């Protein structure tokens, strides 16, 4: 059993990606869609770098929503999404079994839409004793208000709210952890906006690139 006041560690966590599909992303109005896609790709890549089990589930791929978005699938090429008919991952036996099969009781959850497939799954997982962290900036809702209300409902039920960059920094915590340093830094530089620019700048100032043609 994990200590609910303790920081996240890779060995405790699994990532659950819910319905990151273009057909659903079209309906997202709670945030910029490209930013949402980038945040989710960053979160998925973070899970890869830190060796977290990743479960991806989709819904209605053939009739409306389409497959897992390519930018996310590219980051997790070995993960095959489990397609469902139900909105709630917990009410689809193969998807639920995949979560349970990870052996992890701390779930990091990202998905579309916040008001439905995300919140239904999170509320069900909480009821089953899981400790759930909702990565709010990697979730999208129909409107800013309905997205916020869904986050608030999940939080009031016991879910913890977080962001993709906090997940990454919490898992890394010490930049001298060499086994994940390069991967974590690369994610921040690629997706971290001004923070990523700052890391790139600091690296170049500390160890400037060699002049063209130099063998040093």
Defining key terms:
216 residues; six-stranded parallel β-sheet; Isochorismatase-like_dom; Isochorismatase-like_sf; Rossmann fold; alpha/beta; hydrolase activity
Polypeptide structure, described:
By secondary structure, the protein is α/β, with parallel strands linked by helices. The protein has a single domain (11-173), classed as Rossmann fold. The chain contains 10 helices and 6 strands, in the order βααβααβαβαβαβααα. It has helices at residues 22-25, 33-49, 61-65, 70-73, 93-101, 114-127, 144-156, 164-172, 178-191, 193-206, and strands spanning 13-18, 54-59, 82-84, 106-112, 131-140, 160-162. A 6-stranded parallel beta sheet has the order 3-2-1-4-5-6, with helices on both faces. Helix 8 (164-172) runs antiparallel to helix 9. 43% of the residues are buried. The model has no long low-confidence stretch (mean pLDDT 93). Pfam families: Isochorismatase. This is Hydrolase. One of its GO terms (molecular function) is hydrolase activity. Residues 13-164 form the Isochorismatase-like domain. InterPro entries: Hydrolase_YcaC-like, Isochorismatase-like_dom, Isochorismatase-like_sf.
CATH superfamily label: Isochorismatase-like
H and E order: EHHEHHEHEHEHEHHH
| Integer tally of domains | 1
Q: Report the average pLDDT across residues.
A: 93
Helical stretch tally: 10
For the sheet with most strands, the description reads: 6 strands, parallel
Q: Write down the overall geometry.
A: globular
CATH architecture: 3-Layer(aba) Sandwich
Give the % helix: 40-55%
Question: CATH topology, what is it called?
Answer: Rossmann fold
Helices and strands: which structural class? alpha/beta
> Total number of β-strand segments?
6
Unreliable residue stretches:
none
Strand content: 15-25%
**CATH hierarchy, class:** Alpha Beta
What spatial order of strands do you see in the largest sheet? 3-2-1-4-5-6
The Cα radius of gyration reads 18 Å
């Amino acid at each position: 059993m994990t200590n609910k006041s303790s920081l996240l560690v890779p060995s405790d966590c699994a990532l659950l990606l819910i319905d990151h599909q273009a057909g659903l992303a079209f309906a997202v109005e709670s945030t910029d869609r490209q930013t949402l896609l980038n945040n989710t790709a960053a979160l998925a890549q973070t899970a890869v770098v830190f060796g977290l089990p990743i479960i991806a589930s989709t819904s209605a791929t053939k009739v409306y929503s389409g497959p897992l978005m390519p930018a996310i699938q590219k980051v997790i090429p070995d993960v095959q999404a489990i397609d469902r008919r139900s909105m709630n991952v917990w009410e689809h036996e193969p998807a639920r079994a995949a979560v349970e099969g990870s052996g992890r009781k701390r779930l990091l959850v990202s998905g579309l839409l916040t008001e439905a497939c995300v919140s239904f799954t999170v509320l069900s997982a909480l009821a089953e004793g899981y400790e759930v962290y909702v990565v709010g900036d990697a979730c999208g809702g129909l409107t800013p208000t309905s997205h916020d209300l869904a986050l608030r409902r999940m939080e009031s039920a016991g879910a913890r709210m977080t962001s993709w960059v906090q997940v990454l920094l919490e898992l890394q915590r010490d930049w001298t952890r060499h086994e994940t340093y390069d991967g974590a830094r690369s994610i921040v530089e690629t997706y971290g906006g001004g923070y990523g620019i700052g890391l790139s700048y600091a690296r170049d100032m500390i160890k400037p690139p060699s002049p063209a043609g130099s063998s040093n």
